């Protein structure tokens, strides 16, 4: 036989069901709140507040906080900015002008330039008020840093967490050739010094003059000191291709890749009267080459007969070496190429070239 529950028991069952439904609804609302809740630092005229909010944008946050703006107020980030967890919002009624930029890719990352005014207030630790629902949410995730861009110092305040996010918020996207110190993945900390240098590598071609040399022959047929030009000298022209490293728009390094003679230089030839036993002299640049034929103190000259003994004097330091011509060259600017051993007698090999006087 089935016994119907008493009226009191039925009332208790209905109450228990109602309480369970209410608890479920409260739990659902709480879970929804937690899912959309954001922890934000709101700085109003220098007074930081740690805020928990469901607002979708900066403007909504200000409305829900009862903040009414006038034409002189400054709000950073702008009111239309979507609100993100951990963001810092500054409201300053002094009407100070500050710049704030949002990162094009890092959502929620922003940067402001200037160490004074509202910017400085961003780094003040947050405090609790009635917005914080009775529990602290910690300090504001903002730091002040110095960023050197194109050689200019920028004092900035940002909520970025890494060097890469900060540079991105400033509109800088480094490529593989640029220099960033410290590295882009480095976490930001208070007072960090960051250097960004833009590096470009270019190929440049330029027309470079080839100075003509002077070939002197001493003659007993002229009075001592008398000079007669038998062939006029003429500068040549060559095409020089270089690889150039540009750092912040300035040339930092240049490496010559190739030289091509477009117009050969024509040497000036002259006769000089003298009673000396010297047969000839020539002034110009000397270099050395590693594949010189034979051994010892030898050299290559464009036209002196093989076997000619030539005295080579470095005009910068006065050192002299005597060489024997056994090869042809150079062609295009220099007047003689010495063997490594001969060049080392008058100049360091690292110098590459030196100004000399040849006498034979």
Give a description of the structure.
This protein is α+β, with helices and mostly antiparallel strands. It is built from five helices and 22 strands. The strands form four sheets. Strands 5-6-8-7-10-9 form a six-stranded mixed sheet. The protein has a six-stranded mixed β-barrel with strand order 17-21-18-20-19-22. It has a four-stranded mixed sheet with strand order 2-1-4-3. A hairpin with a 2-residue loop joins strand 1 (38-44) and strand 2 (47-53). The model is unreliable at 95-107 and 115-140 (pLDDT under 50).
Short description:
With 360 residues, the chain is α+β, with helices and mostly antiparallel strands. 15% of the residues lie in helices and 40% in strands. A hairpin with a 5-residue loop joins strand 19 and strand 20 (320-327).
Mean pLDDT: 78
Main beta sheet strand tally, sense and closure? 6 strands, mixed
Task: Report the total helices.
Answer: 5
Global geometry: rod-shaped
Distance between the termini: 142 Å
Order of neighbouring strands in the sheet with most strands: 5-6-8-7-10-9
The portion of residues forming beta strands comes to: 35-45%
| SSE pattern | HEEHEEEEHEEHEEEEEEEEEEEEEHE
Helix content: 10-25%
Tell me the number of strands: 22
Point out poorly predicted stretches. Answer: 95-107, 115-140
Class based on secondary structure composition and strand pairing: alpha+beta
Query: What Rg do the Cα atoms give?
Result: 41 Å
